[in-house]
Model the fold of this input.
Amino acid sequence: MTAEAHAPLSTPSQDGTDFDARPVFTQERRILGIAASTWPGIIAPLVVGIIALGGWELTVRLREVPAYILPGPLLIVKTLFEDWTTLAQALVVTLRITFAALIAAVVVGVSLAIIFTQSKWVEKSLLPYAIILQVTPVVSIAPLIIIWVGDINFSLLICAWIVAFFPILSNTIVGLNSADHNLINLFQLYRASRWQTMWFLRMPAALPFFLAGLKISGGLALIGAVVAEFVAGTGGSASGLAYRILESGYRLQIPRMFAALLLVSLTGIAIFFVTSTISHLLLRRWHESAIKRES
Amino acid sequence: MNIALARTNAVAAAPAGRPLVSVRNVSKQFANGTLAIHGVNLDVMAGEFISLLGPSGCGKSTLLRIIAGLNSPSAGEIDWPTSTYGAEGEPLPDLGFVFQDPTLMPWSNAIKNVMLPLRLAHVARSEAEARAAEMLALVGLKGFETSYPRELSGGMRMRVSIARALVTRPKILLMDEPFAALDEITRHKLNDDLLSLWWQNRFTVMFVTHSVFESVYLSQRIIVMAARPGRVMADLSVDATYPRDELFRTSSEYAHLCRVTSETLKKAIAA
Done:
């Protein structure tokens, strides 16, 4: 062999050894832009839902259940449209608190996790208090927070944040510490700085864990906002969806109560859908959870 | 043909007679009391292809990690007489390391994985990208720059790992049983490709393996090690010419060298 510098080796495709051993990923047929295997997962619950709602409507009509005890689904939807202005305002209030709390949870959760992984002493000193904050039921501290803070929206935000931030904190801590030890060695070998290791290695390694936490926290932020508003609402000083539910209950406007409840559920579903989509888009090229293999 | 002599011109970086790395009386005792290696002395000359051969637990990987600076020795020292670190204002470490697993970042595609050592050394993105692309082509992965590790086969991932180790143009490449997890056909192909890379680009290789056949096929020199405690038992030179190929693999010369090495290893284990 001549010492021909930088001569490329034969491409692996020519010898048929390892090129052909590449994994094969499923190439699925798509119907209306959605993978064929996803459709049963959409249709089956949809059918169950339609049957249940139909049965509900039928029962209410046949047995002539009064609307102040159990309104039928059609009446609930009708109320939703009739009271849309009031309910939409309430929805905006609840959404604003939920998303502000979620953003605060992400910022504080991720920042704390990064600080904790930089200093074991800070983690040892502060983590127990984060856990105490998490395990204390928010209902029991919400009245105190509302009294102390004064501004009602800000106190609701704090309550929702307390509920939402822990899954992000604990998941991100696990994620930041889960980087492959050989890769950590590699970074040591190349004299990577602490921040280079954080930015190029620990943060990407933590991403799937963070996103799993985000999915949980998204739902919890809504629950926190609603629960805190119930506490505040009993004091008559709130205007979100939970307050509308309370108010409708007092006034025996049960269809409206159900309409507000429907909006809370739809919001929760939307949050789950959005966080799941974000997670899928960020992980689809590389993480095992987002890849389907044939071989 | 004496390969070492024939190639001294090409390896001008190290002055004649001075080793690239000197391992001096190195011992390593772990915190649990295990004596991983004891009193190892070894000179690695520039441009050499040298294998560390021994049973598992003989400390060959530990020795490699100590040379790489990933572990510190309990006693003794590693000397780099030609001061490979920081010479001529060169900010990159002068060694490449290939682990048993490809150890790629799953979230980065092939070219970004290869660019990593350069990016960590603050080489400009465009230059890093050009050098990484060149290196990927060199290991036979032209056209796979944007493939993610999961989309590649085991052998291709190992090629990316080798490209990453070589992208800083290190003087020495340390390899810790890099092909142990691959099937035999792929391993043979990678052995051949590694030999051509070494032959054409004239770096030094320290190759840890537990395969007699692999060590004889690849190396100029085989350091035979024994366990409990890990120590050097023999320093064999493999007098066979390069290039080595499939013909060499089936030659009686190869069979003979394997038998000699195998017997030495057996004695070392029994000792």
